[in-house]
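Sharing a chain and its predicted structure for anyone who wants a worked example. Both blocks are below, sequence first, tokens second.
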Amino acid sequence: MSPSPRLCSLPTPFENDPTLPDWSSYPRPQLRRDSYLSLCGDWSLSVTDGVQSTALGTIRVPFPPESRLSGIERPLAKNEKYVYQKTFTLPKDFNRGRILLHPDAVMQCSEIVINGRPYGTHAGGYLPFTGEITGALKPGENTLTVIAAPIDLEIPYGKQRGKRGGMWYTPISGIWQPVWLESVPDAYISSLRLTPTMNSVTIETSGGEAQKVLRVFLPDGAREYTYEGDVFDLSIDDPILWTPETPHLYEFSLTCGEDVIHSYFALRTVAVGEVKGKRTLLLNGKPYFFHGLLDQGYFSDGIFLPASPVGFANDIAQMKKLGFNMLRKHIKIEPEVFYYECDRQGMIVFQDMVNSGEYSFLIDTALPTVGLKRGITHHATERRRAFFEDSLMATVAHLYNHPSVVYYTIFNEGWGQYDADRLYRIGKAADPTRIWDATSGWFFGRESDVQSEHVYFKALNLRPDGRPLVLSEFGGYSLSVKGHVFNLDKAYGYRTFRTSEDLTEALYRLYADEVIPMIERGLCAAVLTQVSDVEDEINGLLTYDRQVLKVDGARMQQIAQALRKAHKAQWE
């Protein structure tokens, strides 16, 4: 038996800085209220195998128990469940009528117990859920219990595996996003849906009283509108369009009886269109080149979370400084603060669905690498289909209001893929305002908005099929930075370089010699692997601990400028 690899505990710049906001900050950037009680912080944690329970001590929520920042650093066995417990007392101003509980994400199946009374269950590890708990509460101190089960491969789970290594990462369990409470009146706005054009936005709500007062904050001052019902179409004079170069957000408030919410919208459209006889991707009606990076959202301190929300903001800002305008959020759905930062900073998001089902190296990786890229699909049980399709619809609803999110990927490299054409039609019907990539990489079906290719081990020679051409993964160039490597014994990447200068120049040549020539063939988006190292993978532009930027920023900006120039020349 080979010895276990030597793994390093890598501190990040965010975990010991008391000036940075922590995860008890208000977590929902849209549909905000002034009523808020964070339940982040210290909880008691125990583990049960169904026969006996063992106390593990205090865990720091929302960091998953496998992470260093949680204070636990313990994996969950298949026959175990974690039992979280937190006591709380409601603030005096929590007297509006109803109390709502918001666990923003629990991996992966969870049970909620209030004051010893079972109050509900939830399956799915990446999306928020809400429950009214008014009737279960009592005066004074209350006890909330959250019971979390191990990963079920039938439910979307992402790039987690018990035997981590290579392109598979440490699995997490339990609570990994904020848990919080809010007080709302009996009649309250339960949902908000914002559909923009380039000069208007449709505001749709559910719940609350019929009469509403909308107050919009425009550059020349606030304007107020009173209307009846659940739908209001707002036209904007002299609109400022949202782009990565001008990420303008319009703030507004909505008063509905005793309920008041605050939110924002942006004016922008994204579509497939024909220009000069070629199909391409349009942002605000014009051809646009999406210069992006794969972004997996793993951190050396909290695994699924950075120590502070600033960790997400920092990743986005650093990639913007390098000239990138897009991140492909890879097989993970982040806390809403990530998408808010993309909205605010002007970073486009290509969002993956979270895959489920068994992964086959032979079918999903080896055969496509040697050229077999069509005609293969996987069997999916009715249970897996139901979970995946429910998750797809819930993801669309959850992210609908974020202007940065312009593109959805359903299946990646065949993993868990089934009925791709049917699911494309379902997704497109649910949200026709965005681009839908049914099969990223290979095993293409008949229906998709784009031709989505992955190329790692050979020179680019893409042959367009008439749809917009997207290079949705490429590169994977690696550099090991001493003192900033997670696994001292094994490294994973596709081509290795010894110095930052060598890596930077190799990337420059890759874009100049291979990517830019593809723009003449219709290439309108390219996704380099990747933002940061992730555990064994050392192919990030940042190290896993976010302490070192491996590439020269000025040279990367030259790449971005060359891409823009070549793309612009195609449409002049």
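Comments welcome. The chain has a mean pLDDT of 95.
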